[in-house]
Task: inverse folding
């Protein structure tokens, strides 16, 4: 089974640094950086807005918990939003690719 992880980061530099680290550590197979997006949110009871980068990480479901924990640990925000979910219907080629990642981590 495959898995996806979503998070937002302050800028492309931080996104690239995080992607490089978790790729090198072998806990994800791919990171997609969405270069700029507008975030509108409520945080600590106050409305806020900021420009951020979006990140979508691809991994095998067997690595999901470790990948989420590591992304949280490396994330530059004090309280990052890191959301991971298992994908129960991956394409066969995608599952084979991500499954290789899990096999290397066993």
Result:
């Amino acid at each position: 089974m495959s898995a996806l992880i979503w998070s937002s980061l302050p800028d492309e530099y931080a996104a690239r640094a995080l992607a490089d680290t978790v790729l090198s550590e072998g806990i994800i197979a791919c990171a997609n950086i969405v270069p700029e997006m507008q975030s509108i949110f409520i945080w600590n009871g106050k409305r806020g807005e900021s420009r951020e980068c979006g990140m979508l990480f691809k991994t095998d479901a067997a690595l999901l918990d470790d990948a989420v924990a590591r992304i949280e640990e490396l994330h530059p925000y004090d309280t990052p939003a890191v959301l991971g979910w298992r994908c129960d219907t991956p394409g066969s080629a995608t599952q084979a690719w991500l499954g290789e990642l899990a096999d290397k981590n066993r």
Remarks:
- The longest strand covers residues 46-60.
